[in-house]
Please model this.
Amino acid sequence: MQLVRLHLSHFRNYETAELTPGPFNLIVGPNAQGKTNLLEAIFFLGTARSHRTPSSEEAIQDRAEQARIYGAVERGSVRREIELLLIRSGPGRPAGGKQVLLDGKAPPRLSALLGVLQVVLFAPESTAIVRGGPAERRRFLDLLASQVRADYLSALQEYTTALRQRNELLKQIRAGSRSETLEAWDLVIARSGAALTRLRAELCAELAPIAAQLHARLTDGKEHLSLVYRPGGVEEEEAFRERLLALRSADLERGVTSLGPHRDEVELRINGSDTRRLASQGQQRTATLALKLAEIRWIHHRTGDLPLVLLDDVTSELDRMRIGILFELLQELPSQVFLTATHLDEETLPRSASPNVFEVRAGIVKPATEPAF
Ligand SMILES: Nc1ncnc2c1ncn2[C@@H]1O[C@H](COP(=O)(O)OP(=O)(O)OP(=O)(O)O)[C@@H](O)[C@H]1O
Ligand SMILES: [Mg+2]
Model:
């Protein structure tokens, strides 16, 4: 899969930007010029969201009413066009407004965007997966699987909505303002929750050996990364419903649902030690990179195609050995790569790659006039 054209207007510090990427793209410029903003725009095309902030509105250029991100994607001989509008909230316009057009037409749901352009992003803040709370790891699984499996996305959406409604109702019943039964929501929670639990278990079982193998390569066989799924729900629908029922009075007392995949944990260990507490910063970065590279392979395994790989600032985040292995691994499965850096360092870049180099200055991006090397 390749992004063959990117066009932005009023996105972050870009008034407009136009890019014709190749297979390997280097985005170069000093700090605070707009390099990460370009990766963020590509991430938006893949996922309809930012990797940096839950507020899409933040990405609209200051004082502009809306931002437009356009991308043309080629997969074999099939070309698709994605257009995403981010709309500033205001009177009559809901907060966080987004509109998507696929091949010029509005799909029934924004989520139709997922899977058209698959992206894997590795940025300094990605280490939150290994050092943050369980929600970070659930988000990691969700974002990955939603780009590939429609059944995952629909189970996730159904579960998230039902959970919110059930919790709302629990609070109202507790306050005495509603007397409806929870039965209807329990059914939906058990069905979608059991499905989501099975899908996450399957995903983790597939990811674990891939991540472990990549991690071993990145650490020269010295470290073992293990990934274990610890479900907060139950895989079997009927058993899920029975446990919900057994916990009902406790749930009513607390006003929240205590059972379900919203309580899932994914345990990550390096040589048996929890990465959250015991790994060094370098180990956390390496484990994160192994997980990101595992995403690429898992997407390839599932779809037969390769996602776009967005690498933000890796050359300053990783040591030379790991950068070398990273490029080796990227060449084994040749994804389209977008890499940002403050300066070009020919020693760290793969020799065989002939990159397209783009220079970014104060929200203006243009192909480099000088050859890279
Ligand atoms: N909504 C916005 N409107 C206008 N400018 C914005 C907006 N959001 C961010 N910016 C500007 O974008 C710039 C930062 O861009 P970006 O994060 O892409 O920098 P960078 O080139 O990746 O820098 P670094 O090398 O430090 O990571 C900042 O100058 C910031 O003020
Ligand atoms: Mg940056």
